[in-house]
Structures are given as structure tokens and as C-alpha cells.
Amino acid sequence: MGIRLTQVTTIGRIRGVEDYPRNLTELEARFSREEDCRAWLVRLRWPEGFRCPRCGGGKSWPVRGTLLECAGCRSQTSVIAGTIFQDTRTPLAVWFRAMWWVTTQKNGASALGLQRVLGLRSYETAWTWLHKLRRAMVRPGRDLLTGRVEVDETYPGGLEEGMRGRGTETKTLIILAVEEDDKGIGRIRMRQIPDASAASLESFLAESVAPGSRVHTDGWRGYSGVSARGYVHEVTVIKRSRLTASELLPGVHRVFSLLKRWLMGTHQGAVSHKHLDYYPDEFTFRFNRRKSRSLGKLFFRLAQQAVIVSPVTYDLIVHPSPKTVRVRPQPVGVT
Ligand SMILES: [Zn+2]
């Protein structure tokens, strides 16, 4: 089949040849058999070649299912152990279709949509799969934003309506960083934070924006320590600037409105707060790749990340660690 081969240098820790199907026809031709899916995952997981975790040997052969047996010490290693596919009883070929579908939905993926397209018997399975895949949408140790970066937080307003008038005492606060590039908006980073305290804001900055970058915020006092953290801090106080909030930080407001529209559209606002963490991840994954013309490349990136992200159980998805109550006092200087 016409599999695209592109030589790449280094993408984070990942090195090697990018080899992925370009369209649905290629996906189906290439990944209908379990052994083909397994062989491809082996290459993603060990780009430099398989290494036995026990003896370090480089020679192995497949035995059954997802197991490889080391030619040196005869120990068996599962290709999917320690990945988001761990313990699955569903054929990898079905997972591959799920990844393809998730990455090719322009407006985001819903559990009902996934259930229908794969013919899954239970909605719960589709829902759990989506959550697992979302966890693979953030690459561990990803690059930090640089240059000039707008930062702001918001309560995704539509969500409160989606909560059917309840639960507003645990409002969800989302923080967003938007990198400026020549054409406007570059890459983004986004996540849920427990509150708008300096500690929460600065911990997000540390994991998202490279020191030395120019961080543009409003006058909220939670940002007052930003320059002490090694950033150039640009503050615009709304009251004094005579600009509206959206003119002041146009990048973040543009992205926030897209996020809200997406949450209300694809998910019809039915996103519970305890799960909200992973929706920004999916949104970020799609947004940062919005200019990519290649469907296969998104699928490839998701699969690449799926084998390096730790597995998560259904219980942990349903009952994430409790978060503290999120309360943000009114920012200083907002009229
Ligand atoms: Zn071995």
C-alpha cells in the first residue's frame, strides 16, 4: 500500500521514520490483522528497536496476542503493557479505528458518535475509550511556549447551564496560554486549575511557558509574581486601557470562545467538572494541529503518544482525585 515514509530528525524523544496510513482505505488495508497492528506498535514503542526489559537483548519474536518473547532470556513482554491499551480485550484493529475516527473528527469526538461508528455494544465502553485516548493527547514533556504569550483564565460559561443549574459552587476554572506567531495565534496550552491563586497560576506557567518569554496578562494580583519567575511580565489593566477584555488579550479570548462553542456543540454542555481536565487536552491537541493537512499524521501522533502514556483504569476515570472548591475573587481593575 502507499504508506507514506518521511524521514524525520527528532521529535522530543521520538526518532525514526514516520510511517502511517494517509486515509481510511490505507488504514483498513494495513491494519485489519492483529499482527500488523502489533508490529506497528512495536516500532512506535521502541523506535530504536525492541529491547528486552529483563536482559536488554534486542532479538525477539511474537508469540501470541500482544506478547513478544526475548530470544536471549525467553521472558515475555507485552507490547501494550504500560500503554493506554493495557489489559484491553478488544482487538487492536478496533482501537486503531477508534484512533482514526477520533483524530479525523473536525469538531471533536463524542462517546455516542464513537459507539455508533464502531458498533460498540455499550456507551460506557465508548466513553471510557475516549477518556483513555484523551489522556494520550498530551505528550509528556512537551515543548514550552516561547516568545510573546497571552495568559488568562475563565469559567467556561456555557458549562454552568450544562450542569442544569446545579453544582455552580464547584465552578471550573480553565487557564489558557496562547503563543503569538507571525500569523496570529501559534500554539496553545490549557488546563483546569483549582483556583486563581498565584501558586496555581505560576505552576501552570512553569509547565507551559519557557522562562525569558514575554507573558501578557491582566492586572489580577495572582500574576504579580510572574516577573520574579523569570518572565518578562506585560500587564494591561482593563480599567486604564479603555479596551474591552477581548481587545486586550485577543488570542486567549478567541480560543476561549472556540472552546466554549466546542463544549456546547460536540458535548452539548454535558461535561461534568470532574472530567473537564481532559476536554481541554483534546481541544489543545486538535487546535495545535489545526493547520495540518494530513489526517494520517494526527492518527500517527495519537498512536505514538498512546504507547508512552501510562494506562488508567475505568475506576480512576470515573472517580478522579477530588479537587478543592474553585473560587476566584473578582480580579482587580475589571470594570
Ligand atoms: Zn531478555
Structural notes for this entry:
A hairpin with a 4-residue loop joins strand 3 (60-62) and strand 4 (67-70). The protein is elongated and about 70 Å long. The strands form 3 sheets. It has a 5-stranded mixed sheet, sandwiched between helices. Strands 3-4-5 form a 3-stranded antiparallel sheet, with no helix packed on it. Strands 1-2 form a two-stranded antiparallel ribbon. 30% of the residues are buried. The longest helix has 16 residues, at 250-265. 36% of the residues lie in helices and 18% in strands. The protein is built from 13 helices and 10 strands. It has helices spanning 24-30, 34-45, 92-104, 111-118, 123-135, 157-162, 198-208, 238-241, 245-248, 250-265, 278-288, 295-306, 314-318; strands spanning 4-11, 14-20, 60-62, 67-70, 76-78, 148-154, 173-181, 184-193, 214-217, 232-235. The chain starts with a strand and ends in a 17-residue tail after the last helix. The structure holds zinc ion. The site of zinc ion (ZN) has 8 residues, from loops.
